């Protein structure tokens, strides 16, 4: 059975952030995710979770200066201390929100990165992930990494599935898993069902969106009913995060999710 989580950074923007939890529950979602919780006290978010009855399933570790264009710290040489602080802060929120997994964004390569710079980023990435996975394991949490397409996020360090698998193998932590975003994979590589079949043992979380505009999953080139049917048949037990930008009002666009319990 596919379980859908609403991404509250993108869905229900008709409401203030803390009101989106109840809006998601009213629409039939049983789980929620979002990019970052840090603008709100964890107690306030925990209250919203309790009152709405939805489960917190994922959020990102602090990414550096997001407003200035930073997209994560994990691969950035010279920022190791800041990354470690971000891990501790993210896990503090995860504990208070009973969130089982957090995502560590890799960060951006410089535009003129040569082989030496790329190698420095790679070594930093592995070392930081080993630290983060160890801290997450102590806290009983999973740590996720996600390949992100370089059209939406030019220069992002981690962009392809095989690259992510190599990182997982190099770090070697049981609680380090793959955040498999079908939208990003379709743009970079395609062949979604075969990727799911091959990578399922490594996948800790799945996300969906229509391609190419990142609207509802029933808009665009991907036939999600077939993909989600295969995902369920493979025995996937995790959540499917709805990380898309509604083409109009969020609830008006939920017809695609009737078969999964949503209420448009």
Structure write-up:
- With 264 residues, the chain is of the alpha/beta class.
- The protein is built from 8 helices and 8 strands.
- It has helices spanning 20-26, 42-52, 80-97, 115-138, 161-171, 182-188, 192-199, 224-233; strands spanning 3-7, 31-33, 55-60, 101-103, 142-145, 176-181, 203-208, 239-242.
- An 8-stranded parallel beta barrel has the order 1-2-3-4-5-6-7-8, surrounded by 5 helices.
- β4 (101-103), α4 and β5 form a beta-alpha-beta unit.
- α1 runs parallel beside α2 (42-52) and α3 (80-97) packs parallel to α4.
- The longest helix is centred in the middle third of the chain and has 24 residues, at 115-138.
- It is globular.
- It starts with a strand and ends in a 22-residue tail after the last strand.
- The mean pLDDT is 98.
Labels describing this entry:
264 residues; alpha/beta; 8-stranded parallel barrel
Proportion of residues in helical segments: 25-40%
Q: Characterize the main sheet.
A: 8 strands, parallel, barrel
Q: How much strand?
A: 5-15%
Sequence stretches where pLDDT stays below 50 over 5 or more residues: none
- End-to-end gap: 19 Å
- Strands, total number: 8
Alpha-beta classification: alpha/beta
Number of helices: 8
Q: Sum up the overall morphology in one term.
A: globular
Topology of this structure?
Blueprint lengths: L2 E5 L12 H7 L4 E3 L8 H11 L2 E6 L19 H18 L3 E3 L11 H24 L3 E4 L15 H11 L4 E6 H7 L3 H8 L3 E6 L15 H10 L5 E4 L22
Parallel strand pairs: 1-2, 1-8, 2-3, 3-4, 4-5, 5-6, 6-7, 7-8
